[in-house]
Amino acid sequence: MKTLVSLTALAVVLVLAPAALAQSDWTANATTGVVRPGSAPHTWIGPSISFAGASTGQIVTRYNVTNTFGSASSSVMPWTTLRASIDDNSVAGNVRVRLVEVKHCQNQEVTLCVLGSSDLPGTQCPVCTFATPVDFSNYEYFVEVIMNRTANVPLTVTGLNLY
Predict the structure, then answer these.
(1) Which residues contact 95 (CB under 8 A, 6 or more apart)?
(2) Is the terminal CB of the chain with fewer CB neighbours within 10 Å at N or C?
(3) CA-to-CA distance for 132 and 130, rounded, in angstroms?
């Protein structure tokens, strides 16, 4: 009887393990990106990136998207949504975020999803959805964040999430 209970428990774990893996989102806080050379002066505050002082111009940051399943489990992710955490309460600033796919061994980018800031007070979490599967066996992926500011107004990006 104990053997039957143990085998049943093991079977339940083996059945539920793939389902648990399927919930593996990709996340990045804004401090983990690579800022393009020549971008406007910027600063890291906690998990966020923002313009330094009264600087204006453009900051371009890229975030490498990685396979959160590990290729031993799956190379195709069930993700369909990109979300960003943005503070932008002025028309003097804006943020554009895009998910980009690059075919292995080629230099051709395809934008899968684009979202932008809203000029509303407080932190906003805009989302965009996409239908193309995220397939690490054939493509690389990155998220690009472009921040533009024409005056000294608050403009911050804190986090990114694929789910």
Answers:
(1) 84, 86, 88, 116, 117, 145, 146, 147, 148, 155, 157
(2) N
(3) 6
Tokens of 65: 């998207």
Check residues 146 and 20 and name the one with the higher pLDDT: 146
CA distance 26 to 125: 16
Query: What residues pair up with 149 in beta bridges, in sequence order?
Result: 57, 93
Place of tokens 């593996």: 24
H/E run at residue 141: strand 139-149
Write out the E strands in 47-133: 48-51, 57-65, 76-77, 81-88, 93-103, 109-116, 123-124, 127-129
CA distance 68 to 52: 33
Which tens digits make up the pLDDT trace of 7-55?
333 333 333 344 444 458 999 999 999 999 999 999 999 999 999 999 9
